[in-house]
Queue: 3 jobs
Job 1
Amino acid sequence: MKVLRITPDRCTGCMRCEIACSYMQTETFQPAKSVIRVSSFEAHTSYAPYTCTQCDEAWCMVACPVEAITISAVGAKVVLEDVCVGCKLCTIACPYGTMFYDPATHKATKCNLCGGDPACAEACPTDAIEYVDTEQSDWLGVFAAERGGSQLVKLSGQG
Amino acid sequence: MARTRHVIVGGGTAGLNAATTIRQYDRGASEIYWVSAERPYARMVLPYYLKGDISETHCMTARPARLRELDIEPFFERRAVKLDTQAQVLTLDDETEIIYDDILIATGSSPVRPPIPGADGDGVHSFWTLEQAQGVIRSLHDGCHVAMVGAGFIAFTILNSIIARGAKLTVLEVAPQILPRMIDQDGAALVQQWLQERDVTIRTSAQIAAVEDAEGKKRLRLQDGDDVLADTVIMATGIRTNLEWLEGSGIEINDGILVDEHLRSNIPSVYAAGDIAKGRDLITGQPAVHAIEPTAMEHGRVAGANMAGQLQAYRGSLLMNIVEVLGLEIASFGAWNDPDAEVFSALKPERSAYRKLLWDGDRIIGAMLLGRSNDVWTTNDVGMLKGVVQTGTRLGDWKAYLRDHLFEIKRAYIASGTTARLLPQTVQGSPSVPAAAVAAR
């Protein structure tokens, strides 16, 4: 199965992924509606893009009381908009924080891998996001470990 | 050789998840008999049915085609009345006797009303069952005045729907604050102000003495203060576990059926799940009844897995609630009101934003969030807080950072290594199978 591989060290913080994603999701350019988000660290000198890992447990899917989340042909967990009622159980179930809620539509939203052609990977100019055939992994692990020190904490506070 | 017979009593979330999970593991090898006093539906979505967003069909779960696919024998609109745990026989209200190999008790809870005159009169409603929801829908019309007794979580889940139906709402709460079992005083004050600015009348420390008829309307007499006149009264004054029918069964009960990490009661062939079960609280490690949807779901899945022969241990249930009222999100997790915890809190009243983190050392054990739905990070942060609390991740230096930047949970989350701890962590210890794809054979 293909997954989104994230290499934070390549991210320049350009936010093209957020723009592209929001356009794919809503046909508008609204980073707030993007389901991939970039966080800045070290006073904007390093970045980490972050989105749904399409995890095995599928916390969102099992939480839904009306089975509004299913698995697509490319293995993405997808919200069925005509079944979703907007109860937000999935948003508190997902421990990754990658389950979103759109207050305009009153529906849950999440990464659906754009049906197999993810716009974020296409938009990324530095291959910080790639759509590749590999195992899902903890892409942020090394990034997090390197930045766990008090030096980082101080710098991030200035950001 | 006869197939193992599993009996599930209760048609709610816990029962449904147990049934699908048994099938996920045994692929139809066993018999599943499912007893439910009502045709199964999702209680969680009744507020949207009340609002008029969805049809009754949308609320129903486990329809005939699905039951056939799952090879489940339904006993719907039949009530369980007696359990003989020695002979392993369940008796229904029509005197049907069902012999079982093991049984899951998932009969949930029922709404309670205050013991005052008129509490059960015409025009006074509870909002718990589908039938009660239909009663409330029939009673509402544009411009009607609704008095809601109780300002707890359930009351708040139907608040938007009542307003959407054109009603003028007065909320009466006996405690000194609204949402007394969900948020603290500062949070409650913020929510109360938000609602009052949107024409919801709120009275706290309001004890109802009686509900009387008054020329086609209902009059609520208060112990102190002015009476309230309303067209419809909704009692959202709490729930009580449906335990009475188990008296004499030998099952150990203490406000709920005590269950071990496999969701088993003191009697090995009897499991319990959902509102009726008292299992492990993830944060405190102590037995607790968590009458919330996520717990019913997890209990059902773990109980079902164990009934199907998988030795799964349940880590514990995380108390959590989220509700939105007129564009304001309210969420609380874990030990949100632990008096012994170290507390960080930040209030931005001009933005209707409030955050509170409760710590045990450098682990977050509880949290509260309040914020406008339109402020992007309100809903977005709830999942991350859940992840951090669930994994018990130690935040180290990020604790000091959060003390001064309470709204920057995302940075701390990403840099904390929580995601690494989450990837292998599952409730069932194995890759999930979609419920929709589970079939008997």
Note: Confidence is low (pLDDT under 50) at residues 432-441 of chain B.
Job 2
Amino acid sequence: MTSPMVSLRGVGKVFSGRKGTRTVALQGIDLEIHSGEFVSLLGPSGCGKSTLLRIVGDLLEPTTGAVSVNGKSPARARHDRDYGMVFQQATLLEWRRVLGNVALPLEVTGMSEPERTERAREMLKLVELLEFADHYPWQLSGGMQQRVAIARALTLEPSLLLMDEPFGALDEMTRERMQMELMRIWQETQTTVLFVTHSIPEAVFLSTQVVVMSPRPGRVAAVVDIDLPQPRVFETREKTKYFDKLVEVREVLRTEEE
Amino acid sequence: MVAAAPPIPSSFRGLRSLFGFLIVLLVLAGAWEGYKLLEGSGLPLPIRADDRSMPHLWDIVRSIFEPARRGSEESLGWVLAKASLVTFREAVAGFGAGSLVGLGLGLLFVRSPLAERGLMPWVIASQTIPLLAIAPMVVLWAGKYRLPLWIPIAALAAFLSFFPVTVNTIRGLRSPSPTSAELFRSIAASPSQEFRKLRIPAAFPYLFTALKIAAGASVVGTIVGELPSGLPDGLGRQLLTFSYYYSSGPEKLYAAVLFAVLLGLTFVAVVALIERLVIPPARRVAS
């Protein structure tokens, strides 16, 4: 067994309120994520899944426990630009054209202009939006904006792609199309993905592993391996095995509620 | 696939807003003259509408083309235009200084919460001081140091114009969402990169809204500053003179007021024009 890319041991997070209130967001999280996997954090609101994602990505510090990413601290990994992040909102800079948005992370690294333009165009080709390179974000639909955000997150060739409910704001049809798109991109880039969602079908369809979480305090209820064949395609959703996995995950969530 | 509505051609939009402006102008002119018609009706009017209190609009317009004084060659319009130019120059100086101070304070307050907590109440308090009361003092102080007269006047204009710039700079620099900040953090951008590539561009629409307010305010500040300064060339002096001789020529005072309004509008329009050149159309709504 190779050493895991991400390893969390005994991770806990307590938020202290202004009036001395303490909210335990996460408690005793042990988790390992291996290279090349697609891992979903699934659970109801308030189970701390976004908090956990932010701890891995060094946007938050854990109160207790140890986290390592590629054998480094999350802070080191962030400075080495091991992460690509996609949020629920596309968070595009509205004064920049699509190309300029995708090139932003490259600009921050100090890459020369011709180089970053070329690289950004490659990324736009990957998400099939090359013809929109000169558009402004407001000229694109929500799904297209989110694809630009994915392209931006991938420009630095991160070893770990962190996605926080990236399709949560999209309608059902667009959402399914985006899931297919993400599967294709994941296959092409071989990136490891940590994906936060509260949709059971989404988690089962996309993931190789679903980490089911439960709230108050946020903890890992079970890790379900999703051994559906790769690549995941449109027909995957019609397979008996897919339904079996949906049922399995749903059962875990239900037992946790009781 | 493109979600945006087809944009309205800007020339058409410009024409439409001009049309709207003309309609409002006509309505206002109609209301003025209509109210004057009531004067003869014997109704008790809250404000008198005789020709001395409210001269006919055509009398005001005609006075602009007539000599400013008896025996003078220069028309009133020419005199007022020259005075407007003097006032405009002072207002620009005050606007520039005020905007720079406002921008500096805004940057300082965003960088240092301590400075914001300590100084912001004073900044707000400064705006409640009646300008009319401090104008003579400022002019006197400047006189003591033998500064040219336009300096205290511009300082008073700056005093009015820095405040909106400070407030909106702070608002603009803080406008990016927490997620945007997280994005910059995730790509390990330095604080100065985040400032230059995220916060400053995000603040632009807010800043221009403030600059338009500041432009208008600087004209008001300049005219108030001119009143006690004794500066003979500006609009302030003209307003003062024509209010002395109001009973013999009320339309002249109204003409001077009209020039002051036009000056303010022109200044705001110039700033709006610069805004159009700097910021792409989709973003102007944000403010």
Note: The interface with chain B takes residues 54, 57-59, 78-81, 83-85, 87-89, 91, 93-95, 104-105, 107-108, 135-136, 138-142, 144, 156, 162 of chain A (CB under 8 Å).
Job 3
Amino acid sequence: MSTAIRDDLASLLAVKLGSVIEEYRLKVIRVDDVEALVVGSNYALRFAADRDSLDVAYIERNNRSRLASYTLRPLVMQRFTPEDRANYGHPVTVKDRLLASLSVYASGLANRCRDVLSGDKSWLRRRDSWGEENPSFAIEQLLQGELSESRR
Amino acid sequence: MRAVLANVLICFGLLFVSAGTASGHVVVANSGPARLTFQPSSGVILEATPGKTTTILGNYSQDMKAIVNELGNVKSTDFGPRTGSFNVLNVPDELYVTPKQFWAEYNQPWLSNAVTRGDPILMATQPQFGPASKLFRLNDVTGKLELSGFGKEYLYLRQSGLRYDPITKQMVRSP
């Protein structure tokens, strides 16, 4: 997964999700070539790319100041529509497939997930059903001092 | 989707632990390290077995990326033994065209060699089911889950008579 095939994911995110990032005053933090965070005041979206998929997770700081990560898959499956998925198009190369996936997320997040983007967490009420994971050490370091604690 | 998942679960032969993606796997020279410092999410200790080729599987983003980097990110299509060292799949990027093509031309033959040799197979990522299971990926066209590369690898090993041992975090021959 070198940059020869895939541009830095953070750069691609800044372009493809540009309008969402601007509207919700988010910032993009690079983790490495294939992983990046889109950070709001009380949450972060972690985008991780590999050759055949783009994985997105929601990260929050819980009321014990610990970071917790939840897959966004169920939310995407519930909310994204065929109109969002139509943005995928017909990409051929690995990089084009990544860009196509980002287009799907740009549409789905902007049109179906305004609550998520604005920091509302009611959709995450039953946290145990969202597959909690521990963020990596690198992400822990990058998010130090970021994300206000959740009130449950 | 339920039917697909049910079929997968039947093939896997269990409902809890077992599986992950294959994006990056490598073949390292015999002179490579016998133990890696990276601590994978499964908790398995990445230590090569003397006299054998030790194969490592896992999800790329979560574990294999760091493992491949620690091994020097050596790209190779040599799927032969790496006695006393590690075997991970890490072919040149340009050889990957589609998931189906990559599995047929590179991933399956590479894994088949590992099974035939009787490699110890360390699972850097736990092959478990659940909302965030690394055995599956979300298809952005259909909006449904399908097997990830790691999931295909796990399924292949299950079909080859191996099962995940949650104690050793390795794939072992079923009795």
Note: The CA atoms of residues 98 and 104 of chain B lie 10 Å apart.
